[in-house]
Amino acid sequence: MTQMTAPHAPITAEAFADEIRNYLLTEQGVTPQEATVKDVYVATAKATRNHLVPAWAKTRADMVKGNTKAVGYLSAEFLLGRQLRNSLLDAGLSEQFSKAMAELGFDANEVVFSEPEPGLGNGGLGRLAACFVDSLASLGVPAFGYGIQYQYGIFRQEFDDQGRQYERADYWLTNENPWGHTDYNRDVRVNFGGSVQEKDGKRVWVPDWSVRAIPVDYLVPGYESGRVNTLRLWTAKAYHEIDLRTFNRGDYYGAVHNQIQAEDITKILYPEDSTPQGKELRLQQQYFFVSASLHDAIRTFYPGQEKPDLTTFPTKITFQLNDTHPVIGIPELMRILMDEYGYDWDTAWDVTTRTFNYTCHTLLPEALEVWPADLIGKLLPRHLEIIRKINENFVKLLSSLTDDQAKIDRMRIVTEGDNQQVRMAYLATAGGSHVNGVAELHSQLLKDVTLRDFNDLFPAKFTNVTNGVTPRRFVRIANPRLSDLITEGLGTDSWVSDLSKLEGLVPLADDDEFVHRFAEVKRANKRDFAAFAKERYGFEVNPNTMFDSMIKRLHEYKRQSLKILAVISRYASLKSGQTKLEDFTPRTVIFGAKAAPGYALAKETIQLINNVSRVINNDPEVEGKLNVLFPWNYNIELAQNLIPATELDEQISQAGKEASGTGNMKFALNGALTVGTLDGANVEIRDRVGHENFFLFGMTVDEVEDLYAKGYDKGMSRQYYESDPRLKQAIDMVADGTFSNGDKSTYQNLVNDWLNKDYFMTLADFRAYVGIQAEIEKTYADEKTWFRKALLNTARSGYFSSDRSIADYLERVWLTGPLPEDEKLKSRED
Ligand code: GLS
């Protein structure tokens, strides 16, 4: 069988170099001799994109012509990471690129690094969306990713000389962006404000102001699928940018008021992860991209039709609501169907409920978005009417299903009384076909706790789809050494598109030579990371230490403070001689984390980590034994460098709080062992890799609940402090100024919280955490055992491919599949 490696005929390195030269000259206006690294990056990106365009057009045409229902992935965040290597891989041009760079006299890595990273997401949720569009294309499923092109993505994190985080704007779009094509000819009008009036017995929305939504199209190539999908990110522009009369009066700011109001909508990504703030601008963003996307889908699937039969809409496309952020799409589709196309309520409701599905990504009650009805009424008056009617009908439906009035009241989409609120998760559950959580435990807790009443009455709606990560970016590209070894071990590279094949490595865990080579890969990656950390951050890293990483957003529930308290405790124990230096397993402890700018306790934790790092790293007594690194501005680049080099991965959230986690999957695939709680996808990772290959500690969900019932967060944590000398010593050191040049007030809020509240039970889990670390060290001392376990983590984590997640969505939620093979083959021949 001949295997296609790319959606087009491959070309030679010389020909590719010529194409790059051509772009340099015709678009950048420079010869290779004059070109800078950035010029070469832009020209290479354009040349690469050009190779993908024919398959892109063909995929779209097949999608519109064919009978395969498409997927619309509506997400306020797509955390893409750099595009060049990924596009080269999918275009089948990776090798040509290396040679072409050599021919042109440029360093391939430098060219890759010169691409600014598009940080259009906060963390796991946004990165998951990026993995999902990659997998949809790789599986050949026709799909659109729909979102927002923020002018400023997640802030750049820096640390000041006190170790405090400060935030800088992320100017990622300041330079040329060769990947996104701004399509001014396919703009969409999005309206806001105004009122609803009665005309000829109909409710008519008379808006107050409008914004021009312009699509910026990114190509999403599939790996070896011959397909290229579209990621359409909307940018906002004003219809009338300048008011000349106001300008002529000398009011220059007033003259551009319209422009500012419009462009503000897509100016900046809100930097909260898991705990969004209900700001008016955020609702504007949500409505803006959802309204534009729904109109875009209608014109795409019913081209040129003035009176399309939109009762077929759910057979053309199914929309996935990525968390509550796009849920305003439900009343918007109702409005479009009724007000723009004249359908009656019942038909519109039938179409709408068959079109949408909802993924919930959280267990934190504060993360389920709730909007004041007044705010929705002010910004989207017609939508508020529709939401009220949906609520009214829903309450009627509930009354026909149960006599339990309290339950009905709990389930209202719009709350009653003063300050009415619209609960977006409930609207999504009522208005969509399916609701899913993102790991088995999470989906179960959604059914048992968060959406329990809904599950009681509509059990068929609920399902689980465990998250996954793309093996292309997070193994093949991030870890070339491991990729080569896997390919050698399996005798094929087909694992890149079918990660379940990794299972074939299991027998090699008994092959000492192979395990040794696996260990060599890790060691080489550690040396690479040490060099990267030195160059990028100026850190001295000893590669002959255990690399122990915790990279994720800074959040109390994730419990970075548990880890830093344990580090302090080991430091104290080394200093006091309780632990002999020669018995100590040398460790490099690495943190990467951004805190939401307004999250005070999280920011104090960042400051503490930085200062613990400063004190320990400058203490000659522990030199070479304990080192704490906190590279700033954790992003995808850092993840791609650190994950392949990590030996121990920390997933230590309080049980029942992390919906899934996806970093845990990336680490396991790259041969790190996890120390973790029974939370999120940790549970499934442990079951798959084998309980003996996972370091479990801490309370379970039930134990956590029991402890709350006993009043833990009402002052019980102090008992743990009093009764564990190591814990007491660590907290006392934070309180007494050891990590703040003697100042006792610096970490006052943290210390107070630990001793009086500690909602996420850091203190209660401390003893178990320190205990498991001793076991980890014992295992690490025996290299063969450690790397055998690590290899088994890689071999048994194939399930955590986002290709598998997408296959599950296709089967359980979207009820569609790839474009037919013949259409695919036709597209390759063209
Ligand atoms: C999150 C969860 O916190 C993560 O556990 C999860 O892995 C991710 C993707 O499902 O979604 N929810 C959220 O608001 N941010 C996340 O990262």
Automatic annotation (TrEMBL):
The keyword Glycosyltransferase applies. One of its GO terms (cellular component) is cytoplasm. GO terms for biological process: glycogen catabolic process. One of its GO terms (molecular function) is pyridoxal phosphate binding. Its EC number is 2.4.1.1. It is an enzyme of class 2 (transferase). The keyword Transferase applies. Belongs to the glycogen phosphorylase family. This is Alpha-1,4 glucan phosphorylase. It comes from Parascardovia denticolens DSM 10105 = JCM 12538.
